[in-house]
Amino acid sequence: MNALNVNVVHEGVTYSADVMTIESTRLGIEDHGIMSAMLHCKGDGGGTGVGGYGLDQYDKEKGRRVGHAFGLQWLMQVMATVGVERWEKLPGSRVLVLYPHSESRIHLGQVAVGIANVDTGKALIFKELAEEWFPAEVPA
After folding, report:
1. Entry pTM
2. Could you tell me if 98 and 115 are in contact, meaning their C-beta atoms sit under 8 angstroms apart?
3. How many CA atoms lie less than 13 Å away from 22 in the CB half-sphere?
4. CB-CB contact of 38 with 57 (8 Å)
């Protein structure tokens, strides 16, 4: 359990946050064929995987999955938010893992909705980035 009850306000929305360290990352094709990335984060008393978004898309004409600009933008925004210039530099970085606002300090079972930089407060809300690329497809 996190000892601190941290809140982050981003564009008028309050999020609950856990201070965590990125222990490792995964960037690659999952067993069902979708390209994705994951930040494996650890904090006081627990850990979580952050990410898991599909970074590619299925192309009907080609009959296979192909790269998508959203995927590259997601990777770039994660690095910019954390404050590194290379994906390999992410492990060891401290971040705020963001969740929908709650008075509870325990986020067990909740899905992280974004990350923020511990020092600068710069935040990346994954849904906001997805809405830029897929406005009609992102659920409310």
Report:
1. 0.88
2. yes
3. 29
4. no
